[in-house]
Amino acid sequence: NTPSGKLSKADDSYIRKAAIRYKVPYITTLAGALAAARGIAAARQQPIQVRSLQSYHANIR
Length: 61
What we know:
The N and C termini lie far apart (42 Å). This protein is an all-alpha fold. It has one domain (6-60). It has three helices and no strands. The chain is 66% helix and 0% strand. Residues 1-61 form the MGS-like domain. This is MGS-like domain-containing protein.
């Protein structure tokens, strides 16, 4: 559903600004929401490990 008209654009702007202000994720697509949900589920199952891109690519070769 794509909003149209001045009121819809104002609402969209308000929601986006509020999300940024309160540090709440703002996801606008179903694909993005699904990716976020999968990431949250994965993070709950195992701790997040921070690695450099070089380290990551060295392990997949």
